[in-house]
Design goal:
The protein contains twelve helices and 14 strands. With about 300 residues, it is an alpha/beta fold. Strand 7 (about 165), helix 7 and strand 8 form a beta-alpha-beta unit. The radius of gyration is 22 Å and the shape is globular. It binds adenosine-5'-triphosphate and magnesium ion (MG).
């Protein structure tokens, strides 16, 4: 059966949980430079870049906490300016800073937050508090940093959002708590209806849970797409300094000179695959990929 034009329109709108088009923000010397990317529903996108690259700025623009100079943003198919209130009911957010009152108990936090949401589910909040080992009678000031992040996540999830937008959710928390958080996010998207957009400078987070990746350097987005596509495009190359001839040097992306060896990326073309002069080549890790790509962008 043929779909009507309006049905196709609705279907298209719902395909992407997040669409950012030619987004620009000027802060004096810093320019978020006409960035575009999309996140298909049901997936996790990691947004990586160095300190000051523009990650929080992008998140704040998506949430209409700052005014853009140009561009458009759709969240769950809705314009982020015109549908701001409706969008807020349907998304969960988390920032690096903890904004709960120190003296609130875990149980009070629910009382303070739930009035903002029409579809708050108290039982779900308490289930998350239990799953995240958050005692209801503990005060915010008595929680560790990881526990505070989990408290904010419980609040972000208790109104059953369709999209989570998280700014550095794993910063400053230990590897075990970080892994638990990544597990929570993985289970959150497992039914294919929910999506996550999170910024990070911890590339192992991308490795573990992101299907899509957006990479930014000094306000310029230089990759946005499937993580595996990017991984397939490059090889990590290593060799001794003496092997670094001019012709090879010109091909290496993010060349890094270590004590006796050099390291960088090379385009994964059939020619590059041929073993040459004992150079070592292999698939890069996400960490190696991001480090060398950002290094290259900084140098051009
Ligand atoms: N309100 C503001 N006024 C002026 N400049 C700002 C403002 N907010 C951010 N900037 C500038 O925008 C640039 C990007 O900052 P942003 O906070 O987006 O970086 P980030 O990628 O989130 O970094 P980090 O990893 O340190 O959190 C910086 O140069 C910063 O100084
Ligand atoms: Mg930031």
């Amino acid at each position: 059966m043929d779909r009507t034009a309006s049905e196709i329109g609705i279907f298209k709108l719902m395909e992407n949980a997040l669409e950012v088009e030619l987004l620009r923000k000027e802060y004096g010397d810093f320019i978020l430079n006409d960035i575009s990317f999309f996140l298909p529903t049901g997936h996790i996108m990691g947004f990586a870049g160095q300190n000051g690259a523009g990650k929080t700025t992008t998140v704040r623009l998506i949430l209409n906490m700052a005014a853009r100079n140009k561009g458009s943003i759709k969240v769950l198919g809705m314009d982020n300016l015109f549908a701001e209130q409706k969008i807020k009911q349907e998304i969960g957010t988390l920032f690096d800073e903890i904004f709960f009152v120190d003296n609130w108990k875990v149980a009070d936090t629910e009382k303070a937050i739930k009035s903002f949401y029409g579809n708050w589910d108290g039982a779900l909040y308490r289930r998350y508090a239990k799953d995240f080992s958050l005692p209801l009678n503990k005060r915010v000031k008595e929680l560790s940093r990881g526990m505070k992040m989990k408290l904010m996540l419980a609040c972000a999830l208790a109104h059953k959002p369709k999209l989570l937008i998280l700014d550095e959710p794993t910063s400053g928390i230990d590897p075990v708590a970080r892994m638990e958080l990544l597990e929570i996010l993985s289970s959150y998207v497992s039914d294919g209806k929910n999506s996550v957009f999170f910024s990070t400078h911890i590339t192992t987070d991308l490795d573990k849970i992101a299907d899509y990746m957006a990479l930014i350097e000094n306000g310029n987005l230089f990759y946005a797409g499937l993580k595996n596509e990017l991984l397939k495009s490059y090889l990590l190359i290593k060799g001794e300094h003496a092997q670094l001839r001019e012709e090879l040097r010109a091909k290496i992306i993010g060349l890094t000179l270590l004590r006796t060896e050099f390291e960088g990326l090379i385009a994964a073309s059939p020619a590059a695959m041929a073993p040459a002069e004992n150079l070592r080549m292999r698939t890069p890790t996400i960490d190696e990929l991001v480090v060398h790509l950002i290094k290259q962008k900084k140098n051009v």
